Structure formats: C-alpha cells, structure tokens
UniProtKB/TrEMBL annotation:
It comes from Leptonychotes weddellii (Weddell seal). InterPro entries: ConA-like_dom_sf, TSPN-like_N. The gene is LOC115938299. This is Collagen alpha-1(XX) chain-like. SUPFAM superfamilies: Concanavalin A-like lectins/glucanases. Keywords: Repeat, Signal. Residues 1-149 form the Thrombospondin-like N-terminal domain. It comes from the Eukaryota.
C-alpha cells in the first residue's frame, strides 16, 4: 500500500482515493473512487519476458455502481503505456479476463465467467488469485478453484 502512497499522511495527494477507519479496529481502509488510477514505475523489470510462473492476488469488493464496461483492475504497461499483461474486470458480463503478450507480441487471453466467478460482482469482499503457469492460467475465488458446470 505504501508503494502507491496509500498511507495516512500521503493519500490526500492522490486523486480519487478516500481514507476511512475500519469499523471494528483502528486500522485504516482506502476506497478507490470512480476513475481513480494508481500507478507505480517498476524499474528493473523485463516486461518482454515476465517470469514463467507468477501470481497476482486481489482483495476486492465490486459495488453496484461499478462501471459496466471492461476496465483494467491491474496491468503492466510498456514505456509507451501500451498494456503488456493484466487482469480486466467486466461488470457488464460479470467476468474476469487475464491477458498477456507472448515474446512474439501475440495477444493471449483467457476469460473466466463461471458462476463462482460471477459472485464477486454482488457487493461482498472476495479474494481473487490469478495463478499463471507455464501452460495455463488458473483463477481462484475465495481460495477455491471454480468448477465448470
């Protein structure tokens, strides 16, 4: 959180971020308002060749007023701000899409829209875990692998 300036003394300088006290503790929570964008320069990463296996984990809550069009929940961009890899959230279709560009710059993507995935769009907090392997991508919702119906 601190890497993005989400600390008590700095959050006010970030457009679209609100800080609140947690209901049952003295901890602080940060709410990203509509059109908020958190960016961080990642120097030293070789975006042309990400590691063969990696994980992206989110704790998120999708509110009813979330835009219906697809948007990047998380992404890495090249120097020219063109997306290289990321996770898209589509509240209209109630799906998550993981995408990346392979070393030949070919777009690869997989969309998850099973019933277990759709439940993240109903206003509760959920842990979403995207596990990228050498030959497949798995999505876990609340530490469970969704099953095809």
């Amino acid at each position: 959180m601190a890497a993005f300036g989400l600390v008590e003394k700095e959050y006010a300088s970030i457009r679209g971020v609100a800080m609140e006290r947690a209901a049952f503790s003295c901890a602080r929570t940060f709410t990203l308002l509509k059109d908020a964008q958190l960016t961080r320069r990642a120097s030293g990463l070789q975006l042309a060749a990400p590691p063969p296996e990696y994980t992206v984990v989110f704790l998120l809550r999708v509110l009813p007023e979330t835009p219906r069009e697809s948007f990047a929940l998380w992404q890495m961009t090249a120097e020219d701000f063109q997306p290289v890899l990321g996770v898209l959230l589509d509240a209209g279709r109630k799906s998550l899409t993981y995408f990346n560009h392979d070393p030949r710059a070919t777009l690869q993507e997989v969309t998850f829209d099973l019933p277990e995935v759709r439940r993240i769009f109903f206003g509760s907090f959920h842990k979403v875990h995207v596990a990228v392997g050498r030959s497949r991508v798995r999505l876990y919702v609340d530490s469970r692998l969704p099953r095809a119906s």
